[in-house]
Design a protein that fits this description.
By secondary structure, the chain is of the alpha/beta class. The chain has 13 helices and 10 strands. Belongs to the D-isomer specific 2-hydroxyacid dehydrogenase family.
Length: 310
């Protein structure tokens, strides 16, 4: 956690703090038992599955994940156990939207390639026809998942005079659309999406929503950005579309194989990569940590949690 969060933990809670190397699942369980802990703060790197949950002692009342997503949590098992589990919605909207737009710009303008050229010594001028990117301004931005983060990305897109189209489980009220055009069917939106950005939740409904068939519906030369979930994308199909030129580029902050993604992505010059850092600003990570502590403190004081995940 950031320094302000750690200071709050030390001053307000009787807590066991992990070593720099972290704790294994077995060590976490042992610490909870030995300390008679009533609350647990963890991150999306913890596999909070049924086998882990069934090992938790009965005195644990609340578990707060320092993430907005909870794909790493077996919600049904937690509910059956009677454990309050919370997340951190809203506080990371702007940071993640900034990351998405950074990747849009970097992928379209070949920022990763330009950076490598200079680091490798540069050494020649490029002709007017060489090493060209594609403009962001004026393009049509397709958004899959128009929740709070998707809306924040749309707000940024309007500053670049982009037309915004979106696909969502349901249409937003007009005041939240802010001029964006809704498509009930994803297949109808994709042919218009010169740049496509993903902000949908994980789960069976959205698993591999980006695949060979949906990628083929994008206009040739489109750009894909994903700061949501690696499970939204069939990575074999994405790599094929990047290799054959159907996609101009991609910007990826999330992967199926985290923290060891498919090595082929690193070999593709037209991909900008980030190690799942959408919320990684000092301000946002501090707010997330404090949101976790607020939830833990509320439950342990006998009050409802502000952010239960069900």
């Amino acid at each position: 956690m950031t320094d302000p969060v750690m200071e709050r933990i030390r001053s307000e809670f009787d807590a066991i703090l992990p070593p720099a190397a972290g704790l294994t699942p077995d060590e976490v369980i042992a610490a909870i038992k030995n300390h008679q802990a009533e609350g647990l703060l963890f991150t999306s790197g913890t596999k909070f599955d049924a086998s882990f949950i069934e090992r938790l002692p009965s005195h644990l009342k609340v578990a707060a994940t320092c993430s907005v997503g909870f794909d790493h949590i077996d919600v049904a098992a937690a509910k059956a156990r009677g454990l309050v589990v919370t997340n951190t919605p809203d506080v990371l909207n702007n940071a993640t939207a900034d990351m998405a737009f950074m990747l849009i710009l970097a992928a379209c303008r070949r920022a990763g390639e330009y950076d490598r050229v200079v680091r490798d010594g540069w050494g020649k001028f490029y002709g007017m026809h060489e090493f060209l990117g594609t403009e962001v301004s004026g393009k049509t931005l397709g958004i899959i998942g128009m929740g709070r983060i998707g809306q924040a990305v749309a707000q940024r897109a309007r500053g670049f005079d982009m037309k915004v189209v979106y696909h969502n489980r349901s249409r937003l009220p007009a005041q939240f659309e802010a001029g964006a055009t809704y498509f009930e069917k994803l297949e109808d939106m994709l042919p218009q999406s010169q740049i496509l950005t993903l902000h949908a939740p994980g789960g069976a409904e959205t698993s591999e929503i980006v695949n060979r068939d949906t990628l083929a519906l994008l206009p040739r030369g489109a750009v894909l950005v994903n700061t949501a979930r690696g499970t939204l994308v069939n990575e074999e199909d994405l790599i094929a579309a990047l290799n054959d030129g159907h996609l101009f580029a991609a910007g990826l902050d999330v992967f199926k194989g985290e923290p060891k993604p498919d090595a082929r992505f690193a070999s593709l010059p037209n991909v900008v990569l980030a190690p799942h850092m959408g919320s990684a600003t000092f301000e946002t990570r501090t707010a997330m940590g404090n949101r976790c502590l607020d939830n833990v403190a509320a439950v342990l004081a006998g009050r409802p949690a502000s952010d239960p995940i069900w």
